[in-house]
User: Fold this.
Amino acid sequence: MTLDAIVIGSGPNGLAAAIALAQAGRSVRVLEAEATIGGATRSLELTQPGFIHDVCSTVHALAVLSPYLKTLPLAAHGLEYVHPPAPFAHPFDDGSAIVVERSVDATADSLGAADGRAYRQLIAPFAARAADLMEALLGPVGVRHPLLMARFGVRAIRSASALAHGRFRDERTRAMIAGAAAHSMVPLEYAATAGYALGLIVAAHAAGWPLARGGSQQLANALAAHLRSLGGEIVTGMRVDSLDRLPASRVVLCDITPRQFLRIAGARVSGRYARRLARYRYGPGVFKMDWALSSPVPWRARECARAGTLHLGGSLAEIADGERAAWEGRMHDKPYVLLVQPGVCDPSRAPAGTHTLWAYCHVPHGSTRDMTTRIEDQIERYAPGFRECVIARHAMPPAEMERRNANLVGGDISGGASDLAQMFTRPVFSLSPYATPVDGVYLCSSSTPPGIGVHGMCGYFAARAALEAMGR
Ligand SMILES: Cc1cc2nc3c(=O)[nH]c(=O)nc-3n(C[C@H](O)[C@H](O)[C@H](O)COP(=O)(O)OP(=O)(O)OC[C@H]3O[C@@H](n4cnc5c(N)ncnc54)[C@H](O)[C@@H]3O)c2cc1C
Assistant:
């Protein structure tokens, strides 16, 4: 029997695409290369039995705000999001820290009179309309809420560095903005990096930066359970190496990146599209670490113990330096470290009294350098005695990340560089970015709009494009 749809890959975009197709009454089969589902939302006992670590994504603000995922009955399939008391914190060498709280006012009050006023003016109007903003940011370009987007756009188009210097007086506030913007993996003096800081800070106030109780795998499991309840199938351990060897289906949706697509499409893609796809740029890689800890991290700034996420990197200048180095293919001695302490809100991930810890730093694309010492030195800088709490550690350089998930090309977690030039032209400049020249074959990974993040919107929009074509 010919299936309506095959989806290659079971990341959040693949599963969202499959669900959207199944909701429309289509028969769907998901083919996943690895032994378990979820792509970059998998969880595993990486260090020791009983310690559940998120192999890749862990903070699911975008999943909670996703216009599509929030319509799905995922709680009924066991998914529960838990919130740290504060979304994120940024510690400094003098033992102080800025804590970004759920409340805009509480955060602004902690920044001093001038920066507090500037913060409120900048963030409050967007936090008040966060659902509309996310609908526009995660939706098709330029369609929804034009006035709100115009207001956001003139601020977001700046570089993070310009926004921080232009709006704030205190170096500490500027550093906090840099820490949020550095999630982009794009140099902080590049246009549009301010948008990452603004979007993530607004999300922190509007929805928190929550984690899935029991690990990110719970999101993948809930999506899979919902898909199966709609009649969809998932086959694991099935790596697709050629479009020509797939079971018969009317459409194929590929939750993979351009380089892999070119490989499995072979001679079926050629000419201009193939050349443009071959020019698609990948970004820096990440060096990922996980720890089993005997006690919470001993932060010098005690308020850091309330935050789920920490940005370790000191001043704006230092973070900007490190991000530029990774982008330009150079190593940096004091990399910006993005760290999450799940134990703050989810004790279920480790045996009683113990904790898990998650962190990564940005490194040159495909780097083979071991960053363990540099990452741990950055943690010790703000939490002396940290190493004494370590029961076990697990490190993943870019090549290991890619071995576990072929989409993480050279350790790039974004599915391709996310600078302004490629933000709206993923994977090529086109009015229908999901369609490929191969009839009935679509791309649906984070290499398509709206890009990186656990939100499923790339999959949802690709499925809509496929359904429209099937309807015709
Ligand atoms: C270390 C790390 C940390 C991150 N942290 C966060 C975070 O905290 N919050 C957040 O929102 N986002 C985060 N992200 C980004 C987020 O996880 C990704 O943007 C998102 O998972 C992309 O989803 P996807 O479905 O496009 O691809 P993926 O999740 O990468 O899934 C792709 C799937 O396709 C499968 N596949 C690949 N090739 C084939 C093939 N040939 N045949 C069959 N199957 C194949 C892979 O095995 C994989 O299961 C992080 C990513 C990483 C790597």
Observations:
- The chain has a mean pLDDT of 96.
